[in-house]
Amino acid sequence: MLVSERIGQFFVEGDTGRDRLEYTEYGAGDSWVVLVHGQLMPRRMHAPLARRLAAEGLHVVTIDLLGHGRSDRPADPLVYSVTAFAEQVVALLDHLGAAQAVVGGTSIGANIALETAVLAPERVRGLICEMPVLDNAVEAGILTFAPLLMAARFLPVTVTAVRRLTRPVPRGIVPFWAGIVLDTLDQRADSLAAVVHGLFFGRMAPPSKDRRRIQVPALVVGHPADPVHPAADAAMLAGELPQATFVKARSILEWRVAPERLDRAAVGFALGCWRSTGRTTGRRRRTGS
């Protein structure tokens, strides 16, 4: 089933000025779902899931958070944090006129979904958290991102060289996920260092005591054999959230290369959140950009 797709933008005000964020809408209606990408990845990574959800009647929005994809990329690490990203999700809902949404994310996007539920619980209808990055991921996260931060900060020519090699490759001639990898490698050294620094030394996720207070339904997906996103973190989160359903992926690639089973789980969960009664409707006045 074909669904409509529309690209939009809005602006957020910060201490360093006015920044532009870009998003894509799939489908229509008042049953909103917002999908948040992983660290350094573009919103396009969620296009297949967004289309599947929209084909079932949901109104799906994917966003490039600040420092990612086609949104602005300031070089100030102080503008990057999970809390700041959650504020951008709320600002997106305000811009769209959406009173509530199911908020989902992958990796750091899952953490941002959790932070949104803590920051603005009245705006979150449900959560989809794929491979959250919590307590058990600390060591692997340091090993993965510390060298990236050092290279971007002290050897920026390496980041620039990768960008020059990958940017000319036409995305239309390579497989979808190869294109996502190419987009992820398309970084500027100054903004890359700022994003990693801001997340590395800031708040990565709500603490356990705050996670336990989240009352909305949650679908938590964990991956085996993934040290950066250990299944133990996903299982721990599912145990903390009062209304969580835990789904174990067959591999770290299942939702990328054989998505049908997990797509069905996400569709059923999101539709169930919007079929529940006693919560606010999904539409409110759209504000200007």
UniProtKB/TrEMBL annotation:
Molecular-function annotations in GO: hydrolase activity
Coiled-coil annotated spans: none
A family per Pfam: Abhydrolase_1
Keyword Isomerase listed: no
Keywords: Hydrolase
Domain of life: Bacteria
Family annotation (InterPro entries): AB_hydrolase (IPR050471), AB_hydrolase_1 (IPR000073), AB_hydrolase_fold (IPR029058)
Gene3D superfamilies registered for this protein in UniProt: alpha/beta hydrolase (3.40.50.1820)
Domain AB hydrolase-1, chain residue ranges per copy: 32-137
Protein name as annotated: Alpha/beta fold hydrolase
